[in-house]
Structure formats: C-alpha cells, structure tokens
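# step 3/5: fold
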Amino acid sequence: MSGLEILRRGGLFIPQVTPFHPDGRIDEGSLRRLTGHFLAQEGVSGIVSCARIGEGPVLGWDEQCTVFRAVQGMMDGSHAHIAAIAPQSTDQAVAQLHELERIGVAGAMIFPPLLFAWGQVPGELKFRFFRDLGERARLPVVLFQIPIRSYWYDVETVARIARLPNVVAMKEASFDRELFAATARRLRDDGTDLTLLTGNDRFVGECLEQGAVGTLLGITNVATDEWARQMALARAGDIAGVRAAETHLRPLQEIIFGEPIVEAVSRIKTVLRHEGVIAHATIRAPQMGISPAEQQDLLARYEAVRAAAVAR
C-alpha cells in the first residue's frame, strides 16, 4: 500500500518531536530511534515531521530536509510520512513541494501563510493558493486548520478546497466544537473523499463520532499505545469505549498541554528522554524549557497516569 493510500485511510498519525544535541544540532541518531519506536507500535498509521511539536517553525529549510530524509529513510511501506511546511508564498510552496517529492514523502501538511491572517482575507485567495499548487506540483497536500481564529478557513472555503484533486486530507485543529461539526457535516453532505483528521485533543471522541477518520495529535508522542487503542475502538464503532478512553487520558492532556502550552514540546521530550527513546530533551529558543523541579513533578504525574492505565 502506498503512503498516499495509507493517508487516505486515516488512523493515528504522530507529529513527532525533533531531537537535538545539547548544542542545538539535530540528533539524527535519536531521530531515527524515535521514528523506529513509533513505527514499531501497533496501530500507528504514519509520522508527521517538522510540525509545531516537531519545532519546524524554528528549523531552517536545510535542517527540515535533513529531518525529512532521515525519517523517510525509515519508512517500511506500511506507514505514511507527511512533511509539515510553512511556506509564505506560492512560489516558495511549489519549490518546497518539488523538493519533498524528490525525497519521497506521501504528502505535505501546509501551515497557512502569514498573509492568510492579514485583515479580512477572502476565501477566494485561499482557494487559489491551493489550486495553484495543484497546477504546479504533484505532491498531495494536507490542509491545516490551526487553533488561531484569524487564520481559520470558513466552512465554504474548506468545501471548495476539498474538491481540488491535490488536497487529500485535512487536520482540523480549530479547538472550536461548532466549527468542527459544521465542517464535518458540510464535507459529508458534499460527498467529498477528503480524509478528515482531528487535532482537537480535548474532544477526540466527539470528532471521531462526527466524521473524523483519524487523529493527528501532538500528545500522541507519549502513551502512544493508549491513543492507538482509542483509534482501534473508533474503527470498531465503539464510541462509548472511545469516550471512556478519552476520560482516562484527560490527566495526561493536563500534564502535557497545561499552561504555558508553549512548553509542551519540552514536556514531551522530557518524557521521551526518561523512557530512553531520545538522548536529550533539548529545545530551541525562544522556548525556555521546564525546570528540574518541573521535570520531576511531570515524570511523577506521568508515571501515575501510566500505572492507572495498566491497572485498567
């Protein structure tokens, strides 16, 4: 099965962190070990490289390509690899898509260009951006609804973009229940084959019940087996089981994504280092990281959640 086919099926996609050496260089050894760790876990459909949790916004393009190549080299034919990019112009996006096509990734998840939040941007501009990409590049694209209101794609614009043949999936992470429900309903009514993935980790079960066929959540870097179990319950149609699992995982969400949310990457890396998956918990400024005392508290709370999961 091709990476694109796997992406279209949905499932659990992990936007994995990017490990660094203490001096800030990309730790390719830890990166490959981390990727292998996730690929070996039952229920994982794919990896997303250089998303926000992967610190893509603070990596140069050459560094991002280093990550993309290393992760793509780990792909085994049974998982999809999606590259997250943040181009600021159509020409830049096309150039990056061409490079990613040469690397061999299954698709590119595109952060909205800054221009999309500049005043009252018409949906036509956003539609044309993705239409033009499809006319100039062949790589499949994943639309990204990020949790910033000024960037949101309205439902009508999503519906138009969804009809483009190059746009194959959407990560809906608005964290707005009404917008998610309206978007899912419109896509369903239109009969689109766009793969809807939820990034709303506060109401995953609700999203899966309303039409999402997969998850793309930063928190799945930790306790991945529990998130895979939740996705398996959803595919079996056991929504009650999904909601129960979500309740059990709520403490983990508070541990990792409590305020300040910007330090979620540091918390995830602290857990992964503790578990021996990566060598260092180094993050890049302007993130500050968490203190030794915070690390100790984090790991104690995390172990308690894991122990409770085993007890169930």
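# step 4/5: annotate
The chain is about 50% helix and 10% strand.
# step 5/5: archive (pending)
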